[in-house]
């Protein structure tokens, strides 16, 4: 039942965003009052992206822990957090973390699932990196099976650093760690 309502929700969102390409698009630093929109995007994106990779109960446990409003507001206030919006509505977000001096990590990067492969991800990554003057190398972890994201990062110039198994709340995830040493702009993803 829950799956069915999600599908109907996606169809409604597709209709809502039909004219999105005629609207203005902006990337900016996230504000505390963006937390509810970020939470909604994270939930929809996780359930869409990881439906065949991570069991739903494991997804929900993670989302409840790291994407509740209080935790999100703390993250927005403490780390470089960018959103992409169209006509004032947040459609995606990127959370960056500065690691040791001269290194950074893209710890979260999600778009409204119905808006994937339309150029918004490229714009969010490019402008987000510029907005916060993030140092390279930049690292990102991608779960095996998330082929769309893996190909996206390769097109952006990321290269594979290592593969490992990650214990994700009792569930083993095959994970690929990539890094970017030079910024490649362009490509409409």
Automatic annotation (TrEMBL):
InterPro entries: Acyl_CoA_acyltransferase, GNAT_dom. Residues 25-183 form the N-acetyltransferase domain. The keyword Transferase applies. It holds the Pfam family Acetyltransf_1. This is Acetyltransferase. GO terms for molecular function: acyltransferase activity, transferring groups other than amino-acyl groups. The keyword Transferase applies. It comes from Listeria fleischmannii 1991. Keywords: Transferase.
């Amino acid at each position: 039942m829950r799956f069915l309502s999600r599908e109907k929700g996606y169809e409604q969102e597709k209709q809502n965003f039909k004219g999105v390409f005629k609207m203005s698009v902006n990337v900016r630093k996230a504000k505390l009052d963006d937390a509810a929109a970020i939470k909604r995007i994270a939930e929809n994106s996780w359930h869409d992206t990881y439906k065949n990779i991570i069991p739903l109960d494991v997804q929900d446990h993670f989302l409840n822990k790291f994407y509740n409003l209080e935790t999100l507001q703390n993250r927005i206030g403490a780390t470089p957090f960018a959103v992409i919006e169209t006509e004032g509505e947040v459609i995606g977000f990127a959370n960056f973390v500065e690691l040791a001096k001269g290194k950074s990590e893209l710890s979260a990067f999600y778009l409204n699932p119905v808006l994937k492969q339309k150029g918004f991800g490229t714009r969010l990554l490019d402008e987000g990196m510029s907005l916060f003057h993030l140092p390279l190398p930049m690292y990102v972890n991608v779960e095996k099976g998330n082929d769309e994201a893996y190909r996206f990062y390769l097109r952006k110039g990321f290269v594979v650093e290592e593969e490992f198994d990650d214990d994700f709340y009792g569930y083993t995830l095959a994970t690929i760690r990539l890094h970017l040493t030079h910024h490649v702009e362009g490509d409409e993803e």
